[in-house]
Amino acid sequence: MTRLAYDTDLTDAQWKILEPLIAEAKPGGRPRTLDMREVLNAIFYLVANGIKWRAMPHDLPKWQSVYTYFRDWEADNTWERLNSTLRTMVRIEAGRNAQPSAGSVDSQSVKTARGGEEIGFDGGKKVKGRKRTILVDTMGLLLGVCVHSAGRSDPAGMILLATFWAWLWQCLQVIWIDSTFAGKDFIAKIEQHFGWKLEHLKRSDEKPGFAVIPKRWVVERTYSWFGPYRRLSKDYEFLPTTSEMMLFAAMVHLMVRRLEPKTHTG
């Protein structure tokens, strides 16, 4: 890399982790000429700085090429595979089992910046846009995500999440939820149809005002991790599936930096 580095760029050690996880070019057709490290650098720059695709800096690959790889990696599950592999590495490094046994679910409503699919109004939060329903492990690492209309209720959003992700996470012995998911009939329905056992973590009535709920704070922390990624401050995507990939991309960037922290000198 001959250009000046951006703060979001992968270090040599971080690229060493990701390089084996990027599929080789498909046989036939034109040979690959783009540097895959630079493609990832461009995507991480976009997600972190909240720029438009067409505003990609000139010293990074052309936005059209970067966008094509971003969408191709959505289609072939590369983003999910990167997330899964890095999550396992982070858990093992932390002394945890490779696969989680417990998780937590929560939702977050965000405004949309333009039109697109699955946009609605969240009457409780007074937000017109989309809702991100995520499942995380006890470390706050992303297990699954479903982006949908903000007009969809939290229970309906969780049913969507379970529809896409329950088959993969049958290893979870318990999933912690808050009061928005806590109806007895709903909890029974989720266990019957998807095999997930939900546990409602109740807030103590003894302490007035805000209080951190044990085991539930990890999912709130995950949303806070996404905060510095400006592309996630609103939902700028036309398709909700693209929004999901943006969350996966941010989590990949977070985890590879956790595995190989960036050192600052001078």
Encode the helix/strand succession as letters. Answer: HHHHEEEEHEHEHH
CATH topology of the domain at 100-235: Nucleotidyltransferase, domain 5
Say how many strands there are. 6
Characterize the main sheet. Answer: 6 strands, mixed
The CATH architecture of the domain at 100-235 comes to 2-Layer Sandwich
The Rg value, from CA coordinates, equals 19 Å
Percentage of helical residues?
25-40%
CATH first level of the domain at 100-235: Alpha Beta
Put simply, the count of helices is 8
Shape: globular
The portion of residues forming beta strands comes to 5-15%
Q: How far apart lie the N and C ends?
A: 21 Å
**Unreliable stretches, pLDDT < 50, 5 or more residues?**
none
Mean pLDDT metric? 93
SS content category: alpha/beta
Describe this structure in words.
The structure is a single chain. 39% of the residues lie in helices and 15% in strands. It has a domain at 100-235: Nucleotidyltransferase, domain 5 (2-Layer Sandwich), CATH 3.30.420. The protein is built from eight helices and six strands. Strand 5, helix 6 and strand 6 form a beta-alpha-beta unit. The chain has helices at 12-18, 36-49, 63-75, 78-93, 154-165, 184-194, 217-226, 240-259, and strands at 102-111, 120-122, 127-137, 142-149, 174-177, 198-200. Strands 1, 2, 3, 4, 5 and 6 form a six-stranded mixed β-sheet that branches. Helix 2 crosses helix 8. The two termini are 21 Å apart. It is an alpha/beta fold and 266 residues long.
